[in-house]
TrEMBL record:
CDD domains: HAD_HisB-N. Its main location: cytoplasm. Belongs to the gmhB family. Coiled coil: none annotated. It is found in: Cytoplasm. It is an enzyme of class 3 (hydrolase). Its EC number is 3.1.3.-. GO terms for molecular function: D-glycero-beta-D-manno-heptose 1,7-bisphosphate 7-phosphatase activity. NCBIfam families: HAD-SF-IIIA, Histidinol-ppas, PRK08942.1. The lineage of its organism: Bacteria, Pseudomonadati, Pseudomonadota, Gammaproteobacteria, Pseudomonadales. Keywords: Carbohydrate metabolism, Cytoplasm, Hydrolase, Metal-binding. PANTHER family: D-GLYCERO-BETA-D-MANNO-HEPTOSE-1,7-BISPHOSPHATE 7-PHOSPHATASE. It comes from Pseudomonas folii. This is D,D-heptose 1,7-bisphosphate phosphatase.
Length: 183
């Protein structure tokens, strides 16, 4: 099975230091919806693993978060594709949960859902916590320069990290260059 896991804020949609608190603030990065749809139509299952501490902080509620994800699904469906499992961590940094990146709990949830191994699965993010979560479960860390990506790039990266300008470039690599597939 060809599984690709994406971080959300800064990869699919623009991020903000003030958090993404409403559907109106949830604005796709140029080319990201098309990229997900193209991947989906090319046989890839595209899942999402996103930290959403804004829930714990009281900035928005689960209904609003679900509305953002319904919007994502609607836009991708409009391009003939579909979005797979979306997993989020609603906890705050001090709650010690197992799902908040850089912990790999969400990636493991996705792998269990699809009954695949994570080794070699590409996980695309914009923050160091994304890359660390990928490394923790032997998946392939992929950094995009959108969102916090440029800032992350200025720091230290896992040596095996692949770097792309944006999600559209990741999709082009996977679709047109038959990159390694999952097991
Ligand atoms: O990139 P993903 O995982 O999809 O989501 C990140 C968001 O949950 C927010 O994560 C926060 O980090 P803290 O959770 O406050 O450490 C900040 O970085 C916000 O700017 C950002 O919008
Ligand atoms: Mg992000
Ligand atoms: Zn959590």
């Amino acid at each position: 099975m060809k599984l690709l896991i994406l971080d959300r804020d800064g990869v699919i949609n623009h991020d903000s230091d003030a958090y993404i608190k409403s559907v109106a603030e949830w604005i796709p990065i140029t080319g990201s919806i098309e990229a997900i749809a193209q991947l989906s139509k090319a046989g890839w299952t595209v899942a999402v693993a996103t930290n959403q501490s804004g829930i714990a902080r009281g900035y928005y509620d689960l209904a609003t978060l679900d509305a953002m994800h319904a919007r994502l699904r609607e836009l991708v469906a409009g391009q003939g594709g579909e979005v797979g499992l979306i997993v989020y961590c609603p906890h705050g940094p001090d709650e010690g949960c197992d799902c908040r990146k850089p912990k790999p709990g969400m990636l493991q949830t996705i792998a269990r859902h699809y009954q695949v191994e994570l080794a070699g699965t590409w996980f695309v993010g914009d923050s160091s916590s994304d890359l660390k979560a990928a490394m923790a479960v032997d998946s392939q860390p992929v950094l995009v320069k959108t969102g916090k990506g440029e800032k992350t790039l200025a720091g230290s990266l896992p040596v095996s990290t692949l770097v792309f300008d944006d999600l559209a470039a990741v999709a082009a690599e996977l679709i047109h260059n038959s990159a390694p597939q999952n097991n």
